[in-house]
Amino acid sequence: MTTTNPTLADLTTRARSTRTRPTYGHDALITCDRLVRIFTTDGIEVQALQGLDLLVREGELMALVGASGSGKSTLMNILAGLDTPTAGAARVAGQDLLTMTAKDRLAYRRTTVGFIWQQTSRNLLPYLTAAQNIALPMQLAGTRSRTSRRAHAERALELLELLEIPDCRDRRPHQMSGGQQQRVAIAVALANDPAVLLADEPTGELDSHTAEHVFAAFRTANERLGTTIVIVTHDAAVAGEVRRTVAIRDGRTSTEVLRRSEVDETTGHETVVAREYAMLDRAGRLQLPAEYTEALGMRDRVALELEPDHIAVRPDDSEDRT
Ligand SMILES: Nc1ncnc2c1ncn2[C@@H]1O[C@H](COP(=O)(O)OP(=O)(O)OP(=O)(O)O)[C@@H](O)[C@H]1O
């Protein structure tokens, strides 16, 4: 290979192209860039997030899945503004989650994101009615005048109607079913019209039929209000209902399943086609699914070949293989 010294004109062109190249995630609503979160307890370090990359576009409804301990809740707590990463970058709706002041963080939690927890009891105040629970975040974010109180009550009813639970307006949490409580929790989270709804196992305590109703409420919020929604779930039914499911493994995004509808031209039948992708990070790192590498006995070192339209990855067949 011959190398030539670049001319000044080459360097100028290169510098200009670097400057004009869009930054990673410039058009995403949520950008996680090499996110790291290390917890230290009793001198032992746990790397909960190990350089996680994730982009979520405005208007998406997506699911995050992964084994217990893979880092899902850690990521959600960071995106919710409840925890700060050790390193890397995280931006949501134009706000930098690492450099935010305490005051910005509070405003962020009140107006930019809405959060729904798995435990129904954690989402609502037990001594307030559904309408009062929904009005509370509006009161905390704004004024408490008589006109605003009327506006808050109207907005509460509007949200309860949208999520098909207007009957719950004057009921306290113990007078509602688990599914109704979670739908009210979604209304509470939507009260200040956030850009993003984050939900950590929102259907974890519910039976599958009730879970379907709760998931339908998320879909309504996404379709009717345009809210971007990220749901952490173990529920295969929920994960199978969204267009995009991202899997987290060992603190990194590993694979992604995209689903799209296809209509058969002759029969008119609509089927959902799902395809799995692996994530390639900017350093060129790729995490191969364990079942693929195990099936071919791949470990430590693999052979790579660049083909015209793909890269072949084969088990190590070198002579000094041990
Ligand atoms: N506050 C903390 N202090 C110490 N270690 C923590 C803390 N929070 C999480 N971890 C550790 O970080 C790793 C990731 O945990 P995390 O709760 O994010 O996983 P998860 O994917 O949400 O799991 P699950 O599905 O069981 O909720 C685990 O090893 C966990 O023990």
Automatic annotation (TrEMBL):
UniProt-recorded Gene Ontology molecular function terms: ATP binding
Superkingdom in the source lineage: Bacteria
Coiled coil: none
Keyword line: ATP-binding, DNA-binding, Nucleotide-binding, Transport
Identification of the protein by name: ATP-binding cassette domain-containing protein
Keyword Transport: yes
Organism ancestry: Bacteria, Bacillati, Actinomycetota, Actinomycetes, Kitasatosporales
Domain SpoVT-AbrB stretches: 275-318
Domain ABC transporter: residue ranges: 33-275
Organism: Streptomyces gilvifuscus
